[in-house]
Design a protein that fits this description.
The protein is of the alpha/beta class and about 425 residues long. The protein folds into two domains: about 260 residues, Spore Coat Polysaccharide Biosynthesis Protein SpsA, Chain A (Alpha-Beta Complex), CATH 3.90.550.10; about 130 residues, no CATH class. It is built from 14 helices and ten strands. The strands form two sheets. An eight-stranded mixed sheet has the order 1-4-3-2-5-8-6-9, with helices on both faces. Helix 10 runs antiparallel to helix 11, helix 10 packs antiparallel against helix 13 and helix 11 runs antiparallel to helix 12. It is elongated, with a radius of gyration of 28 Å.
Length: about 425
């Protein structure tokens, strides 16, 4: 086994009493004497002028043999918020693992030194991690919303590789290789001890482990322009990646990685933050139901003065159904505002259709039996029909509209606990 690399911090913008940055943007470099200065200056200018969070740029030199380290040290003296880390062993994954493990930032990101990815995607990348909504974020060149300029050879290799990941490791993310990623620091501290690769497969291994541990991976469409001067050896990298897929697949199938324990910890903490169970949901649903029924009846009686009963029922029921869905999402099932998406409301309208069928059918039956009936009788029939619809509404809300109720709130730190035990178990 190779000895652990020696990490040296050679130039640092921080001093005693300095607050840790929110985001640490790591730029791994190896023999990049031509690109490191213009790229870091461009990145620093962008972050200083357009980035709302405090930041640090860490140039992670991994055993360069040219003037890269010298130029990086000069940049750290020239530009505030620029730090230099040096490792005495080569390997992009090794550099990221060492620097991320030592960082005091809240969110850890990295960019390839060629800055092929448009920097305007950086804020959408890190914001869900800063807010706690997601755990890992990746730039995706394979999103339909991405704009990518690269040759057909690289396009074919990239798509083939990601297809291999989906079929062999059942990966759910779309693009493992884009050099534009971020992770919350607490999640990184739990996962990094389990990552074995020190080269280009590092990204894929980290993502697969995060996904298997139940972490939320956020994908950002990116504008990406291929670097024609890239010195990455495609053949040797592809071979190493395939070996990594085989090794990781065997490790996952053998069960030697403690991901099930980590997932259980995540689910347990999510349960602590979840709303109470069935009884609590029924109480809250009933409260919302009573209020929405009162609003429905008042609206129906008012509309009934100006339109036929069926039309008044449709308008009153639709108006209250939309409010009912939103209120139950927030109050009964504990979903946050950003999770009240159009899919939830579309399903809520499906439930509305059932309620409309019950109430309008009851009105039709009443008018068939007693054509001259008044508004009072219509209202009574609608209240009874709506009560029946309410039972169906609760069952459908719980099983279909909001099936993951209570589990969508990300735990505060589902993986960091007992990470030393997990690492020890993984090393056996």
């Amino acid at each position: 086994m190779a000895p652990e690399p020696t990490l040296q911090i050679l130039g640092s913008p921080t001093g005693p009493g300095t607050e840790p940055p929110v985001v640490d943007v790591v730029v791994p470099v190896y023999n990049e004497e031509r690109d490191v200065a213009p790229s870091v200056r461009r990145l620093h200018r962008y972050l200083s002028e357009r980035f709302p969070f405090s930041f640090r740029i860490t140039i992670a030199d991994n055993a360069s043999t040219d003037r890269t380290l010298e130029i990086a040290r000069a940049l750290s003296l020239e530009l505030p918020e620029v730090e230099v880390a040096h490792l005495d062993q080569k390997g992009r994954g090794r550099a990221l693992k060492a620097v991320w493990s030592a960082s005091d930032a809240t969110v850890l990101a990295y960019l390839d030194v060629d800055l092929s990815t448009d920097l305007d995607a950086l804020l959408p990348l890190v914001s869900p991690l800063v807010s706690g909504h997601s755990d890992v974020a990746i730039g995706s060149r394979l999103s339909p919303m991405s704009r990518v300029v690269r040759g057909p050879k690289r396009e074919l290799i990239s798509r083939s590789y990601n297809l291999i990941l989906r079929t062999t490791l059942h990966a759910g993310f779309s693009d493992a290789q884009c050099g534009f990623k971020a992770i919350r620091a607490d999640r990184a501290r739990a996962l990094l001890p389990l990552v074995e690769d020190t080269g280009w497969f590092f990204d894929t291994e980290l993502l697969v482990l995060a996904e298997r541990a139940g972490l939320r991976i956020h994908e950002v469409p990116v504008d990406w322009v291929d670097d024609p001067d890239s010195r990455v050896d495609i053949v040797s990298t592809a071979v190493a990646d395939l070996k990594g897929v085989w090794r990781l697949g065997r490790a996952l199938s053998s069960g030697r990685l403690p991901l099930s324990a980590l997932r259980e910890k995540a689910e347990a903490e999510a349960a602590v933050h979840a709303p109470p169970g069935l009884v609590g949901q029924m109480v809250r649903f009933g409260t919302v139901g009573v209020l929405s029924t009162i609003a429905y009846v008042v609206l129906f009686v008012w509309l009934r003065q100006a339109m036929p009963a069926q039309a008044a029922n449709l308008v009153a029921l639709l108006a209250t159904a939309l409010v009912n869905t939103a209120a139950n999402a927030r109050i009964t099932f504990g979903l946050r505002d950003e999770e009240h998406g159009w899919r939830l409301h579309a399903r809520g309208l499906g439930v509305f259709a059932i309620a409309l069928g019950l109430t309008s059918g009851s009105l039709a039956a009443l008018h068939a039996l007693a054509p001259a009936t008044g508004v009072a009788a219509e209202t009574l029939v609608l209240i009874v029909a709506n009560a029946v619809a309410t039972v169906a509404r609760f069952l459908l809300y719980r099983s279909w509209v909001f099936p993951r109720s209570g589990s969508s709130t990300p735990p505060t730190n589902p993986l960091a606990a007992d990470r030393d035990d997990a690492h020890e178990e993984a090393s056996r």
